[in-house]
Specification:
219 residues, alpha/beta, six-stranded mixed β-sheet, three-stranded antiparallel β-sheet, 5 helices
């Protein structure tokens, strides 16, 4: 049996201290493997974004434990965790290809390896014909897909997406989430999506919810 990608036990994160302390994540215990296809819903401020940042190793817990058993080194670098952020906008002076390539170049990749990774990611999300387009020439859905392609280009083993369909209409959002699940299947990567909106029925294998920083499993 393969080790899980990430495992937490009573994970917690508090902002501030004393009377001004805010508990964003409280007592979260979960396991995410490469077969996980999970969505976590909850209102704004419920702790979803902080949880994703903890799982990605971007924040340190203030209580509890978190481990990445399948990764070495641990916590893993950004090339092994594809993090789709709410504010992950594209650079307007770069075309789609260069926007998707930028994290790879900053990570030290060069030449054919970058070109192949970018082409593969754009094909994966259905933007192969838009590589030379500037962000201003894209629709809202295409912009979100380009942001997704940027996270997928390194072929991560764990995908964490924070409201990836934000400000899209229902049909566009469902289409993007479907592509995200398909991408996780193609990459054999674990997937956790956070969203304030209900997910399409049957798209995710696990339905979770965040309520006042606590994780509740619906199924």
């Amino acid at each position: 049996m393969k080790p899980p990608l990430v495992r937490t036990d009573e994970l917690a994160h508090t902002y501030g201290s004393g009377l001004t302390a805010v508990v964003a994540v409280h007592g979260v215990t979960c396991v995410i493997g490469e077969e996980t296809r999970a969505v976590v819903t909850g209102r704004a401020g419920a702790g979803k974004t902080t949880l994703l940042h903890l799982l990605a190793g971007m924040k340190k817990p203030t209580a509890g434990t978190i481990e990445w058993p399948a990764f070495e080194p641990s916590p893993p670098g950004p090339d092994l965790i594809g993090l789709v952020l709410q504010d992950g906008g594209l650079l307007r002076d770069l075309d789609v290809r260069l926007n998707v390539a930028l994290p790879l170049v900053l990570a030290g990749r060069t030449g054919t390896a970058v070109r192949d990774a970018v082409d593969g990611a754009l094909e994966l999300v259905g933007l192969a014909g838009f590589a030379k387009k500037a962000p201003r020439d894209l629709t809202g859905e295409q912009i979100r897909l380009a942001i997704l392609a940027r996270a997928l280009a390194p072929a991560p083993k764990l995908i964490l997406a924070d409201d990836p369909a934000g400000w899209l209409d229902q049909r566009e959002g469902e289409r993007l989430l479907g592509r995200l699940v398909q991408a996780a299947d193609r990459l054999a990567a674990g997937l956790l999506v956070a969203t304030a909106e209900p997910a399409p029925a049957g798209l995710f294998g696990e339905q979770w919810a965040m309520v006042d920083g606590k994780l509740v499993r619906d199924r």
